[in-house]
Fold:
Amino acid sequence: MRIAISTGGGDAPGLNAVIRAAVLSAINRGWEVLGIKRGFAGLLGADEVIPMTKETVRGIGHQGGTILRTTNRGNPFCYPRRRTDGTVDEVDRSDEVIDNARERGISAIITIGGDGSLAIAQRLFEKGMQIIGVPKTIDNDVNGTITTFGFDTAVTTAIEAIDKLHTTAESHDRVLVLEVMGRNSGFIALHSGVAGSADVILMPEIPFHIDKVCEKIMARDRVGRHFSIVVVAEGAFPDGGEVHMIGESLPGQAKRVGGIADGLAREIQSRTGKECRSLVLGHLQRGGVPTGYDRLLAARFGGAAVRAVEEGKWGHMVALQSPHLVTVPIIDVLREPKRVDPMHDVVQTARSLGISFGD
Amino acid sequence: MRIAISTGGGDAPGLNAVIRAAVLSAINRGWEVLGIKRGFAGLLGADEVIPMTKETVRGIGHQGGTILRTTNRGNPFCYPRRRTDGTVDEVDRSDEVIDNARERGISAIITIGGDGSLAIAQRLFEKGMQIIGVPKTIDNDVNGTITTFGFDTAVTTAIEAIDKLHTTAESHDRVLVLEVMGRNSGFIALHSGVAGSADVILMPEIPFHIDKVCEKIMARDRVGRHFSIVVVAEGAFPDGGEVHMIGESLPGQAKRVGGIADGLAREIQSRTGKECRSLVLGHLQRGGVPTGYDRLLAARFGGAAVRAVEEGKWGHMVALQSPHLVTVPIIDVLREPKRVDPMHDVVQTARSLGISFGD
Amino acid sequence: MRIAISTGGGDAPGLNAVIRAAVLSAINRGWEVLGIKRGFAGLLGADEVIPMTKETVRGIGHQGGTILRTTNRGNPFCYPRRRTDGTVDEVDRSDEVIDNARERGISAIITIGGDGSLAIAQRLFEKGMQIIGVPKTIDNDVNGTITTFGFDTAVTTAIEAIDKLHTTAESHDRVLVLEVMGRNSGFIALHSGVAGSADVILMPEIPFHIDKVCEKIMARDRVGRHFSIVVVAEGAFPDGGEVHMIGESLPGQAKRVGGIADGLAREIQSRTGKECRSLVLGHLQRGGVPTGYDRLLAARFGGAAVRAVEEGKWGHMVALQSPHLVTVPIIDVLREPKRVDPMHDVVQTARSLGISFGD
Amino acid sequence: MRIAISTGGGDAPGLNAVIRAAVLSAINRGWEVLGIKRGFAGLLGADEVIPMTKETVRGIGHQGGTILRTTNRGNPFCYPRRRTDGTVDEVDRSDEVIDNARERGISAIITIGGDGSLAIAQRLFEKGMQIIGVPKTIDNDVNGTITTFGFDTAVTTAIEAIDKLHTTAESHDRVLVLEVMGRNSGFIALHSGVAGSADVILMPEIPFHIDKVCEKIMARDRVGRHFSIVVVAEGAFPDGGEVHMIGESLPGQAKRVGGIADGLAREIQSRTGKECRSLVLGHLQRGGVPTGYDRLLAARFGGAAVRAVEEGKWGHMVALQSPHLVTVPIIDVLREPKRVDPMHDVVQTARSLGISFGD
Structure:
């Protein structure tokens, strides 16, 4: 039995712990393990497949990053091809990927990736490849699993940032706007905002009104709380009618370069007259040492993926449905990103705590 | 509407975050909140009931400990009474507790506590008191809820200890035995041991054979891994036939003072000839700043407890059944402690990783 | 004996620990202590002076921020005055400050502040006020003291950020530019860069050549290290001749808004063709819980300040000249900011490690 | 030019960072570097000398432990020899060490070690070996240097423990006794105790009276502070006349097994009637990831050691005399351990803060 492991997409704390657990679980079953670097397309190159031994994964369980790299070489179904005239088009090289895997004697592939990688996995599975998925998303926006490794670390990083901003905001009577990850889903903003005692949380699931945001800030000011912390997911956006109103500072997601935080901070400062600063956490949420929670969850995912191989659950993804790890068909989770339910108990509790969602 | 909050039993990271969330959620509903110090019996004294305001709970969300103290004054159903001849007996003062609450105009009590406090809560509920419980257990041994606040912090503390011991064990070719909490249940040992890459995990749910433990250590030694980390729950015990064999070093739980770790370390050293040291984490697992995960979970518990009051779910306890917070009847969780299922995926993954349970 | 304590300027981790140590040291000598909020000008208002007791400072030793606020009301020597026609000019209200202190029976003031606050302290001292200074600078740019509280925390925050960026940079083959504090001095950039294993460190003391920076990045690329970490102090600038060349991306300190990191990242990306991202740490370096080192140093500063009051060392500042705390005349430290000596052993070691300073 | 690096004695956070800095600094000078495992006696074995390359030290700067192991094989001047009759005696094999180094073409050795290793280094230097020392002591008890790497990490670990114990002690009205390292010197106890706001600090430099300790605890109790934290260095001892008095619980250093903390806790409990618990931090202080401060200091030591080789400062040790790294003759630092000066400003400040030293 020979299996291979690949990772795709962005970095996530815990990737190495998944790899380690999968490799050890497979080797301890007497299997051979290969590592495919840079996603599925690593199977198109000669030098991107390496043997994985106990030695390869020693001590990586608590290290950030991934020993298999994550920068994808490209999607094998529409792989970039440079033509002789210098232009570039795309070709379907998925058959090559499958052939290459067969030639190397790989009978199953465990792929750790987000929406994009899982979609590729599904198509390769439909063409007959024996694939098991492991969901990877910092934002926690993959359906079918309560959470994934890396999310707790990202939330923890955001909470630590809020804590640091809190003391400075309070000492200086300032409004601080912290932008966290979450293009489609506000999980990081919501969880870190509630745990870190933010005053305002803005997220894609609840379009906000800038005047409601400012109202909250001024209401605090009137009772002697001269500072406020606003946590905003990168994908948050103002409610329809206002897009034009705060136009230039919030020019719409497509063109936005520096993130929503800067525009929001300028707008709040101009409306409230209070000193307002912004900070974009960015890559700090992706990297670094995983939390204990994520180290365990990642190990569980890696172990469960090997059991799924053993049981031949091809086309399935391992998933957390607490307290159990289960498998779910990949096809079922691809429809749309998971989002925060605006009636979820965390949102209700946040409102009870006095946190404003700008709605 | 006037409610009261009490905490009972040992310290747990996140207690203050529960209190803060409950107090703010109640005050923002226009309710009054009292705090009862030192458990239910605080209602027997004159000076243990204090008003709780927004100011009282400001900034305590990320602080360890509890502003309401946790040392119980005693169980009101068998309260210690000092007689005139100096001897002490016990009397049932539960009616006084109920009367006292009524006189203070308290219409509902949120009690945060472990098995003991919840059992008292159930009996007071049966006598007509309007009570909502919030489970509190570092060991994660309360049924009905997937986990409770404080557990993630305790596991994280244990993982950090394992990480620190790892480098020293490896540099010095030593066997290190780390004793963690868990009288009835091995959750802390299991979770920290898997996340921290321990070599042996011993817990109450899987009685161990000392020779299996030593075998694992020597098997590692033979392949050049001259060190090992053993994580042992305080309630772990050797399998029947061996109790006598390792008698003096493991004299049975009842009489054990210094914990199981010392005896185990001595036994391993004498059997393997390898230098062996022990460490008892003890109180370090109870105290300190809660992790981000626990800060959020604690806030959710506090918020949900107030909603349960609103809905009149008397005699219920808030509980995590991911991804939702629910309520369950307290009576249903009191039967016996929650234990690790030896077939749970974490145990399976641990075995796949090569971790020995000494069985 | 009645003394007062004031803090001025920006937030710094450890401020509360200084305040706590000074208050307790004074009270335990039988003195009375007042706290002046918002800098010296707090003495011009009625409501900015509060009594300081043991209770006031309980448990604040490990908290970030300052219970005395730091936003200055203004410099009493050129205090803003709103005239009847609505325009604003400045007046010298220093005599009022001195009178106010005298009326309140304050015989000595301990002021915790940076260059600006120390300069005001010096002028008030010259007018007869009995003042002791405690240096406060995140950047470590105050002369006369080896380091100050808050600097170790800021460096630690920067190192943690580098660690996080490291794994992402390596996994994704990216160049990451991290901007840290240091307008005049590169201490944070240098210390965090060496401890965090940065590849390039840019700081005000060593003007850089952008082509040398790119050369280093490409040299790493050629030996298979496809990522690089650049740590840049906010006050770093390119060597003379090049200012024009990289003009628009680095438009000069005066007009720069978003910091040097963005322009630098764009320039590196356009010159090397490598994907390049930037991150500005900003306020994260100022806030939060002080490190153990800073907690101790802050307590030492607070204790020494009270001893300096006892000894009547007016016009002096407490200072660390390891292993001793000493006092130095404030006038001696005001001349110019402390800077990194380009021949210092840390710079030499950095060069030996292969770190480029872009020179 | 070919140099070798060895480490001896116990683990210390930062060892790997010293090794990394020395190896890179040497290789970047065009030198060859060997690593000697298990101390000087590693030169007596065939398999304990390994080549050190950039690859060998990649990414180890922030890892605890040492890639060169620290368990000494023995002192080459009195090396254990097993005789044919099974008994063991000791022989001087130092000439072999020197010959072996010469045969391998090693022209200089950088040795990282504590008192014991430095004493061996001095004797080898006197026999003509070209040796540079790097001081290593968790306890900070080596003379000639203000501090060494690892000490800040150990103090930080102790402070974190005190923080955790604080909340539990306060919630439960308990006295907690924390034993930290420091056989000869109380630096860890003093620094962590002041930074962590302990109530009592006991250390070898100030013999304590148990009644003074209890007096402090009861004085706190009387003003409503029903808990206390006692930090005790492992080498602390009661003042002469009392040794007998508290005899059995403190039976003298030689026979003491479980550390001083247990006996002290029992004694305090029996005298004050307050619930009292003890915790021995032990190995937790030696291991784990170094703090940012220690990572920088370790890098500086490694870089300075290579410069000392370049300058031929044989028989010298690198040392921190802030803000500079210097070299001092090893012979000058061997006389006796460095101790806390009871008049040092940290002790004075501690007393001002109300901390008792039991004297």
Q: What stands out?
A: The mean pLDDT of chain C is 92. Residues 151-172 of chain C form the longest helix (22 residues). Chain C touches chain D through 46 residues (CB under 8 Å).
